[in-house]
Amino acid sequence: MDPRSEDVLETVVPFGRAMRNEHFNFDKAYTNLNHGSFGAFPTSVRDYQRKIQDLTESRPDPYLRYTMPELLGNSRAAVASLLGVPVDEVVFVPNATTAVNTVLRNLFYGKGDVILYFSTAYGACEKTVDYVCETTPAESACILLEYPLEDQEIVEKFRDMVNETRQDGRKVKVAMFDTVLTFPGVRMPWEALVQACKELSILSLIDGAHGIGHIELTDLGKVGPDFFASNCYKPEDTLEYASRGNRVTNLSRWLYVPRGCAVFHVPARNQHLIRTSLPTSWGFRSRSDPMATASGQLSTVGSNPFVELFNKVATVDATPYVCVPEALKFRNNICGGERSIREYCKYIAQAGASLMAQILGTEMMSNGAKTLQNCCFANVRLPLTLVSRNFSRDQHAKSAIQPGIMDVQIDSEEYISIDEAPKLAKWITQRTIEDFDTMVPTMVHAGVIWARLSGQIYLELKDFERAGYMLKELCERARRRGSRE
Q1: Distance of CA 99 to CAs 95, 135, 176, 351, 475, Å?
Q2: Predicted local distance difference test score (pLDDT) of residue 294
Q3: What angle do CA 20, 21, 27 make, to 5 degrees?
Q4: Is-contact 155 204, C-beta < 8 A?
Q5: What pLDDT is attached to residue 344?
Q6: pTM for this one?
Q7: pLDDT of residue 387
Q8: CA 452 – CA 180 distance, rounded (Å)
Q9: CA distance 484 to 481
Q10: Phi and psi for 453 in degrees, rounded to 5?
Q11: Dihedral angle computed from the Cα positions of residues 97, 103, 105 and 110, in that order, rounded to the nearest 10 degrees
């Protein structure tokens, strides 16, 4: 049953197996249940990119010097309309991590300045915070999140940490948070966090790697973060590190653009804070340059200094950037538009996860308000009980008297040490690839092993049903032999 609203546009090709077979290029034996890590893009976009690459190779100088900037402008205009922001407030970078680095390394930090982030931040971004704190006077503060949580709890934790740092005589300069988390795959209350940042006079830096093409963002300009980045292809899901107001979003992950394309949004009010791209390139102007503005950027009639900063950043293959209009053409003409895609992807993720939970005898991650599930990810608990190293049968007996303290089986083979859990979760993920020709990322979060599932237009319920029985088999093997295979 197609759950989409009656007023969405019809698709030319039905979502599910038909869409996969006609418009995507997966191996016939492979089921892509992990769109969230590296994304995928349709044949029409692939062919368009190759066409642009061929044209570039046929006449390199004319095409790279004159045609490519025009195509980049068209792509910037197309993506700006999806975000509801002016075209001169968006540029392209290779990925969201690059944009986060660009912001954090451009800001000036004094003694007592704090970079605030959540424990669920993407690992590469957390490492960037660590590096900035090593090389500048900045300090960091981390807010622990253990899901499931209500949105209000997250906002309260944020405000409490800000107040705590202020009581210590420090000041939160910038706060970094996500639109949708990498792991667990849940929607963050990023709009409420942006509002809190405004009220508390804190710069907001949004890692929207799982943003554009995934959730509704046409009101981004009204929400008004200070910095925003989002992948158009989503290529950088290194799940091993997922534990811990500019916005960056990877276009290639959820927007069906080739890998290596992210949009970086900086409102005009903050563009003076971004003095250099990474790496520093032709758009940079020192403060001593007579053609520079007071902020140090070039003053050129008819051009935007911020845009010029990113127009030519070294010599790279910019063809993923110019594929945005072609990807939107596919999404509108073949898929029925943004709303149609979002509604199906959310439906298939949640319905597929519910079916998988039934097979496993567990449950999906959710909160009372159901806000965590308002995205194209879903998380299912694996039927593996984690216990501490010092767990004993006496503790099991105690738990029988006080239900809920420790839900375990009396057979010692059912016990899995929490110390071994990360290794076991990694083993399960690897086995899904090597033994079953798919990929379901599994990780430990808050003392539980979860599987993260991605909804997409080329998937159907049968794909999740097969994955449910796959995980059931792997959990049975894990209980028998742990991670020794």
Answers
A1: 7, 19, 12, 34, 39
A2: 42
A3: 85
A4: no
A5: 96
A6: 0.86
A7: 87
A8: 13
A9: 6
A10: -120, 145
A11: -140
Calpha distance 309→89 (Å, rounded): 12
Ranges under pLDDT 50 in the chain: 235-245, 247, 294-301, 393, 396-413, 483-485
**Residues paired with 227 in a beta bridge:** 205, 246
Can you give the pLDDT at residue 211?
Answer: 84
pLDDT at residue number 388:
76
Sign of CA dihedral 17, 20, 21, 22: positive
What pLDDT is stored for residue 288 in this prediction? Answer: 79
At which residue do the structure tokens 């418009």 appear?
23
Q: Is the peptide bond before 383 cis (omega within 30 degrees of 0)?
A: no
Closest CA to 266 of 303, 300, 296, 309: 309
Predicted local confidence at residue 196, as pLDDT: 98
pLDDT computed for residue 210 by the predictor: 87
Closest to 375 in 3D by CA, of 253, 236, 258: 253
